UniProtKB/TrEMBL annotation:
PANTHER family: TRYPTOPHAN--TRNA LIGASE, MITOCHONDRIAL. This is Tryptophan--tRNA ligase. Its main location: cytoplasm. It comes from Gymnodinialimonas phycosphaerae. GO terms for molecular function: ATP binding; tryptophan-tRNA ligase activity. A motif ('HIGH' region) lies at residues 10-18. CDD domains: TrpRS_core (cd00806).
């Protein structure tokens, strides 16, 4: 079976963007049974923006694991891991730091956005983030990576790293990975500004829906979401210049598992005041069971730790031989 890998940072909270853009696809790919699926809490990535207080990182990682399971990831069907518990990720990342070029990294828009005006003060880890991401994927020889649209550039870099390694050593060892960016919500936007991505690190709370928000909070954030005074159009073309309106229609479509056009077929002509009520009801119906299951799972952190321990052992059956072979190709002495 071809192998799928993807991850989410335990940098605190899980948004509707993470759920619709990533997690929901992870579950679909697992349940399709066509791929071997490996899903990861990327805790090494989560400290690139800032060093979190240790207890916060531990709690975020467990909460994210609970989020994976509550969303439908089955730790028996998928390999569910925490990145730092599988040391081959970081070991291969070092090799890739020596394969990737400074210029490639410097062109990454995530690096530019997150380092902002203070590139001198950003961590070296933030700069090298995409090399670690390439290692996460290639240490499994994964061929398919479901992600949101914002990760497309990093996946192209993963392909460049694999191709350069293969070329420089004259081997056909690392696969050239395919991004899987599909569905109505590959880029869920900020509820207050439809031109910006919904992000868990945005300081303004009402810009996003968190998976742990209760029904009232979800309904309130949707009611307050920015829109325009026009009714919903009857075709998706009518949304092209209306980013805030388009975002709400896309969110509805993704939650209901229908196309944006099907949403408009049902709601064309409605004013947003009305549509938002339907959207809030749908969001609460879909998200509430997940958030209550998350809090139930969080009552037993030892069980979460056991699940991640088992996941790491299964993962290392794959990663240890691939890393050994990589070292062998490079000429690193093994004895
Ligand atoms: N708004 C989004 N729409 C669709 N997909 C999204 N993803 C994130 N935001 C959206 C997808 O979620 C996966 C995991 O993302 P991540 O947590 O590793 O990092 P991120 O992309 O940096 O997510 P955030 O929420 O924006 O976190 P912060 O604020 O910490 O930077 C990825 O597949 C991503 O595409």
């Amino acid at each position: 079976k071809p192998r799928v890998f993807s991850g989410i940072q335990p940098s605190g909270g899980l948004t509707l963007g993470n759920y619709l853009g990533a997690m929901k696809r992870f579950v679909q790919m697992q349940d399709a049974g066509t791929h071997e699926t490996v899903y990861c809490m990327v805790d090494l990535h989560a400290i690139t923006a800032r060093l979190l207080p240790p207890e916060e990182l531990r709690n975020n990682t467990r909460e994210l694991c609970a989020g994976f399971i509550a969303s439908g990831i089955d730790p028996e069907k998928s390999i569910l891991i925490n990145q730092s518990q599988v040391p081959e990720h970081a070991q291969l990342a070092w090799i890739f730091n020596c394969v990737a070029r400074m210029g490639w990294m410097g062109r990454m828009t995530q690096w530019k956005d997150k380092s902002g005006k203070d590139a001198e003060g950003a961590s070296l880890g933030l700069f090298a983030y995409p090399a670690l991401m390439a290692a996460d994927i290639l240490v499994y020889h994964a061929t398919h990576v479901p992600v949101g649209d914002d990760q497309k550039q990093h996946l192209e870099l993963t392909r460049d790293i694999a191709a350069k390694f293969n070329h420089d050593y004259g081997v056909d060892f690392f696969p050239i990975t395919e991004p899987v960016i599909e569905g109505a919500a590959t880029r869920v936007m900020n509820l207050q500004d439809g031109t910006k991505k919904m992000s868990k690190s945005d300081p303004v709370e009402k810009t996003r829906i968190n998976m742990t928000d209760d029904a009232d909070a979800i309904a309130k954030k949707i009611r307050k979401a920015k829109t325009d005074p026009d009714p919903l159009p009857d075709a998706v073309d009518g949304l092209s210049e209306r980013p805030d309106a388009r975002n709400l229609v896309n969110i509805y479509a993704a939650l209901a598992d229908i196309t944006p056009q099907a949403v408009l077929d049902e709601h064309a002509g409605a004013m947003f005041g009305h549509f938002k009520v339907a959207l809030a009801d749908l969001a609460v119906a879909k998200l509430s069971p997940i958030s209550s299951e998350m809090s139930r799972l969080m009552d037993d952190p030892a069980e979460i730790d056991r699940i991640l321990g088992r996941g790491a052992a299964r993962a290392r059956e794959i990663t240890v031989p691939i890393l050994e072979k990589t070292y062998d190709i490079i000429g690193m002495l093994r004895s």
